[in-house]
Specification:
The chain is α/β, with parallel strands linked by helices. Helix content is about 35%, strand content about 20%. The strands form six sheets. The chain has an eight-stranded mixed sheet with strand order 12-11-8-13-16-17-19-20, with helices on both faces. Strands 2-1-3-4-5 form a five-stranded parallel sheet, with helices on both faces. The longest helix is centred in the C-terminal third of the chain and has 15 residues. It is globular. Bound molecules: cytidine-5'-triphosphate. Cytidine-5'-triphosphate binds next to helix 14 and strand 16.
């Protein structure tokens, strides 16, 4: 499901869809259709190998344009197509991207139309890898992906699941609607000058902060956790993941390396981030602890279940006549508090921020949480207010920083992306020296 497909806003946006040779090439058809539905004009380029999986004619018929495979082909109407093509588009998407094309991009090899286009392009590039799990997890591929990230390329992490080679693991092309949403997110973040002047708060929608999070490694939790009762039932909540994904999008746009540990979400993640999926509070805690030592900023935006069933029944609980059923719950671990208490926090200068979702006495509860959990920043929101909280694109929050505990700063109703930028501004204020920490590309972990 693609959230942001108002075709007016993307009308006339020119997208190059580059298809390389993998079994997932057929999914590029849905990517093409999704982009067209949003109003984009799509031109397709293919590698020779891709043509063995899907005929160029299919893309030609659907895109209504010549499909570029070879600059030098007799039927190519433009003899220097890799230059004209690459420099006349607003966005380049490579989906599926094989290990081979990723390696070529990472090393500047330009031996065919798509790789030459990549080198000649000014437009942002989204790469959606798809390959066998062993190839995806090979150190060479991880190194190449890390290099592409460092070059500013948006990577859409492949999914975990059953592969065409009958194995189960990471490497499946992300779903077409995820790729389309990522493309629309990148296109929306390219602002025209008219949008600058009309924005009531340019600093939060525009990236006028520049890349002030370059070198930061931002870790974010988002979405709802699911606590199993039996194989078919669980305890959860209404969180959509919007706020955490907006923070991820904003931090990525400001130059951070972003990892999101996401529970159950109902909106697509932004492009360019590393996504780790979990279900329960326990899994989220483990995933966070694996990442925390190499993070410089932690933001807990997840709606973590505070309690879980004390036992998970191995079989479906059967109805027992008219008798009531009692579930015994036990507390889950507080992930935010355990990050704040992590022994590496002082050494790493880790900034720790959390949310306080309240229905009454907002500031008092938020202040208590900030002190009790030993946070640098708490973002308080009264979820009963119109336009705030779950399942809205907007939010109304109050920022409470550890050094201004008596001076809460209430922000007006604004989009979650704008709110995210204000939160990042506050994190920067709390720790201005937290910049340009260079990290070795080699430490990119395996998913
Ligand atoms: N949080 C967490 N792990 C938990 C519970 C909460 O990391 N097990 C984080 C949330 O992501 C949020 C913050 O703690 O950033 C506060 O969550 P909230 O639900 O508002 O408060 P609680 O601490 O759970 O307290 P209460 O439910 O009593 O208000």
């Amino acid at each position: 499901m693609v959230g942001n497909t108002n075709s007016d806003s993307f009308a006339g946006k020119r997208v190059a869809l580059c298809v390389s040779g993998g079994i997932a090439a057929y999914k590029a058809i849905d990517v093409l259709r999704g982009l067209q539905k949003a109003g984009c004009v799509v031109r397709v380029a293919m590698t020779r190998r891709a043509c063995e999986f899907v005929q160029p004619l299919t893309f030609r018929a659907l895109s209504d344009h010549h499909v570029l495979v070879d600059d030098y082909a007799a039927d190519n109407p433009d003899p220097i197509a890799h230059i004209t093509f690459s420099q006349s588009v607003d966005l380049i998407i490579v989906a599926p991207a094989t290990a081979n094309i990723i390696a070529k991009f990472a090393n500047g090899i330009a031996d065919d139309f798509i790789t030459s286009t990549y080198l000649a392009a000014f437009a942002p590039v989204i790469v959606a890898p798809a390959m066998n799990t062993a190839m995806w997890e090979h150190p060479a591929t991880l190194r190449n992906i890390a290099r592409l990230r460092a070059d500013g390329i948006h990577i859409i992490e492949p999914e975990h699941g059953r592969m065409a080679c009958h194995t189960i693991g990471a490497g499946r092309l992300a779903e077409p609607d995820v790729i389309v949403q990522a493309a629309l997110d990148v296109l929306s973040s390219q602002h025209s000058p008219s949008q600058v002047s009309s924005s009531p708060n340019p600093s939060s929608t525009m990236n006028i902060n520049g890349f002030d999070f370059t070198g930061e490694r931002v870790l974010i939790t988002t979405g709802a956790t699911r606590e199993a009762i039996d194989p078919v039932r669980f305890i959860s909540n209404h969180s959509s993941g919007r706020m955490g994904f907006a923070l991820a999008q904003a931090a990525h746009a400001r130059g951070a390396h972003v990892t999101v540990i996401a529970g159950i979400t109902s909106v697509a993640p932004p492009a360019g981030i590393r996504l780790v999926r979990v279900a329960s509070a326990d899994e989220m805690h483990h995933a966070v602890m694996k990442e925390i030592e190499r993070s410089t900023v932690f933001i807990a935006a997840a709606a973590v279940a505070d309690y879980r069933p004390r036992e998970r029944h191995a079989h479906k609980i059967k109805k027992n006549g008219d008798r009531s059923l009692t579930l015994h719950l036990e507390p889950t671990i507080d992930i935010l508090a355990s990050v704040a208490a992590h022994p590496s926090r002082p050494t790493n200068d880790l900034i720790v921020a959390g949310f306080a979702a309240e229905t009454s006495d907002l500031i008092r509860h938020a202040r208590t949480k900030l002190e009790k959990k030993n946070l640098d920043l708490i973002i308080a929101n009264d979820v009963t207010r119109e336009g705030a909280g779950f399942n809205h694109d907007t939010n109304i929050v109050t920022l409470l920083a550890r050094d201004r505990i008596d001076a809460p700063r209430e922000l007006p109703l604004m989009s979650k992306l704008e709110t995210a930028h204000r939160i990042l501004d506050e994190i920067k204020r709390l720790h201005p020296s937290h910049t340009h920490i260079e990290h070795d590309l080699g430490i990119e972990s395996r998913l």
